[in-house]
Every structure is written in structure tokens, then in C-alpha cells.
Amino acid sequence: MAYDVQTWVSVAALSGGGMAMGFGAIGAAIGEGYTAARANEAISRNPELSGDIFKTMLVGQAIAESASIFALVIAMMLLFTKFAAHILMVPVLLGAGLAMGMGAIGAGVGAGYPAGACCTGMARQPAMGGRLTTNMLIGSAVCQTPAIFALVVAFILLFTDFSQSPVSPTWAAILGAGISAGFGAIGSGLGGGLVAQASCEGIARQPLTATPVTNVMLLGQAVTQTTAIYALLVSFILMFKTFPATDLIAPPMALLAAGICMGIGAIGPAIGEGLAGQSAVAGIARNQEHVAELTRLMLVGQAVAESTGIYSLVIALILIFVV
Amino acid sequence: MEALRQTQKKYSSRAITTAIFAGFFLILIGQQAIGKGLILGTVFGIVNFVLMGETLPLRLGKSKGKTYLFSFGSIFFRYIIVAVPLVMAIKLEQYNLFSTMLGIFLIQFFILAEHVFGLIASARGKQV
For residue B60, how far is the Cα from the chain centroid? Predict the structure, then answer.
């Protein structure tokens, strides 16, 4: 049985919408559940503060679920928009759905970590409630950055006219761009969340260290975002570089492999950098006199963890420009 | 629960006031679709935020598994509500999709803005 192009476009739109919302809901639900579980512990420790803990939980969860609302937006666009009947719309719609769905996972889970730690910290140090909430919100907002990258890529895919480009290898470049942006966002969201969690715990443990802890948190989180930026860069090259038409199978496979290489290759380094940042921030909260040494060690550790992300970037660039 | 209600009231009233003023201004200068989209998105964003607060007590005092289950249920229920303005903006020309999205995120924007400005103000105060 043969299907026309319009049918394939509709199938891709439905599949892309399903992937966007299905994957996109995972992170926010886990993050929210984690926050609620930590709020339980906090209220059992200090029941008099249940009102403040509820309030913190609400505000934290409102930020944590932003990434999955991005996914909802893309899913609704894929499900309810009438798309042109062009064969390149198939990878566009699948790529957009995959980018946003996968891109929301890390941000949702990551933003739940500081929200949960803030609830626990509130029970431990009620007087630091305001500072803890501010720190939690800033940390959570940074966790949302990779999801915003994925949203940007999904929008660019949906609103760019690829109809003048050759079908092969453009289909692979488009799909690769979606995979790179989506998978590449997972690690950065999680890694950033680990650093922000340690920061909230640290401020609750030692309120006097709030300023250096927040500063080093921002530095540590910034480094965890770099691999998501590499993935975004590879996505942009795949979307905007003009590739010559080809009947061979190798060139499109090289472009698809570039997206897979950078997307998956970005997950591990970002989580590793998050672990390095987490321990440094926790250490600063315990021993404020050694901020310089702890920050230096964190940056050296993160630089080493970053190297595997750089290898992935180099291989992705070779696949795009050399192969 | 009074603290929770006060928080909801504070951010919701700020968001809806801003949306109404900005929306009417946009309608007056001829950008009807953008103005209407902003107000529509904000109204549903507030409904989502209020429901989030109202379902919070259901998630506490239960086992970890049940908490995760309630979180999933809460998300899917609220997302159906948030999907309504998005579908309307996609299907109907009188609502702009991007301003509707902005309206949905207006509460989160005000939460972040309040704390970031507070942090900047306290840092400046320390310098003086």
C-alpha cells in the first residue's frame, strides 16, 4: 500500500507531537515528585513551617515545570497546525518533536533538585528562607537554559522553509539537528540541578557562606551548560549549512551521525561537571576560607570532564565538514 | 495554607494586571491578536498556577511512589488546561500564538523577576 506525501507529513506531525509531550513530561514529573518528597521530609522535621514550605514548593515547582510547558507548546503546534505537503517536512516535524521532548527531560529533573533542597533547608534554617528561595530560583532558571536551546531549535525547524534544499542529505541534517539539540540538553539540565541543590543545602547548613556559595554555584552551572552550547552549535551548522545534493548514502549518514555523536556525547560531561560543581559548592559551605582552592579544583575537574564533550564536538565537525 | 494562598494571590494579581493593561494597549494600537493572545494565555497560566497550589496538599503525607503518581496526574490534568489557549491560538486567527505563550509564562516571569531584583538591590545595598 502506497501513501502520499501529505499522509507521511501527518504521521510525522502526530509522532513528533507524541514524542515532544511524552518525553517532555518525564523530567517535570520526576522533578516535581522529588520536590514533594523532600517537602514531606521538611514538614516532618519542622511542622510549624508547613505554610512556608508549601509556598517554596509551589514557587519551585512552577519554575521546574516550565520546560515541560515548552514541550506542550511544541506538541500542540505539531498536532494542530496544517503543514505543507513536502517530503522534507517529515524529518522537520520528527526533529522538532524529538528536540523538545528530549530537551525538557534534564531541565525538569534538574530544577527539581534545588527546589527539594530549598524545602529541606527552609525547615533547617527558617531565618534564611528568603535567601534560600532566591538561590533556588536562580539555580532552577539556569537549569531551564538547555530546554530553551531545544525550544529555539524546534522553532527554527518549524519556521524555516527547507523546500528549496535537496531532499538528500538535508533530511539527515534536519533530523541530526533535532537529535543534537534534544539529547545535548539532558546532561546540562541535570548537572546544573546538582550544583544548585548543593548550593541550597550549603546555605541552609552555613548561612554566612551564602554569597560565595551562590557565586560558585553560578560559575559551576555555567560550565555545565557548555556542552549544551556545543550541541546547539552543531544543530545550527546542520540546519543552516547548505549541503550539495547527493544520491549516495554516506553523506546523509555522516550528518545524522554528527547529530547523534554531539547529542549523546554531551550528556556525560555535563553530569560529570555537575558532580564536580556539587562537591565544590558543598565544600565551600563547610569551609569558607578555602574558596579559591575549591573553586580552582572544581574548574580543573570540570575541564577534564569537558574533554570528552570536546572530542564529541570535534568528531561531529569532522563528520559534517570532512566526511 | 494561608501563606500559599497569599503567594498565589500576589503573583496572579500582578500577572493579570500587567496582561490586561498591556493587552488593552496593544488592542488600542491595532495589535488585536497579540493583545488578546496575551490576556488569554495569562488567564490560563493563572488557572494552572492556582490548580498547582490546590493539588499540593494531595501530594504530601504519602509514600514516595504515591507522590510521584500524584505528580504525574497533576501534570497531565493541568496540561490539558494549558493546552486550551494554545490550541485556540493555533486554530483561531484572532489570537497570536507567541503572545499566548508569553501570557502562559507571565507568572514564572514575575516570580523570577521579583527575586532577581531583590538580589540585585541587596547587593547594591551592601556596596553602599
Answer: 23
Does this model's pTM top 0.90? no
What's the pLDDT tens digit per position in B52-62? 888 777 766 66
Q: Helices A250-265 and A291-321: crossing angle, nearest 10°?
A: 170
- pLDDT one-digit tens code per residue, B79-123: 889 999 999 999 899 999 999 999 999 998 888 888 788 778 777
Q: Provide, as residue numbers in chain A, all residues whose Cβ is less than 8 Å from the Cβ of B91.
A: 80
The half-sphere exposure of A206 on its side-chain side, counting CA atoms within 13 A, is 18
Residue A15's closest CA among A231, A145, A170, A175? Answer: A175
ipTM of the complex model: 0.72
Q: Under 8 Å CB-to-CB from A97, ≥6 apart: which residues?
A: A15, A16, A17, A18, A19, A20, A74, A75, A78, A154, A178
**Per-position DSSP letters for A109-128, written without gaps between them:** HHHHHHHHHHHHHHHH-GGG
Q: Contact B56/A36, CB-based, under 8 Å? A: yes
Q: At what angle do helices A5-45 and B64-91 cross, to 10 degrees?
A: 140
- Domain residue ranges of chain B, discontinuous segments joined by +: 2-127
CA distance B16 to chain A (A): 17
Number of domains making up chain A = 1
- When scoring B58, B75, B119 by the number of chain A Cβ atoms within 10 A, the one with the most, hence best to mutate, is B75
Query: Is B76 at the interface with chain A, CB within 8 A?
Result: yes
Would the CB atoms of B4 and A134 count as touching at under 8 Å?
A: no
Q: Which DSSP state fits A49?
A: G
* Closest by Cβ to A40, choosing from B60, B111, B112: B60
E-assigned strand segments in chain B: none
Q: Contacts of residue A73 in chain B, CB cutoff 8 Å?
A: 86, 101, 104
Interface touch B67/A37, C-beta < 8 Å: yes
Specify the CATH number for the domain of residue A84. Answer: 1.20.120.610
Contacts of B38 (CB under 8 A, 6+ apart): B19, B22, B23, B26, B96, B99, B100, B102, B103
Domain encompassing residue A14:
5-321
Stretch among A42-56, A98-112, A254-268, B23-37 having the lowest mean pLDDT: A42-56
pLDDT digits (tens, 9 = 90+) for A200-251: 999 999 998 888 998 899 999 999 999 999 999 999 999 999 999 999 999 9
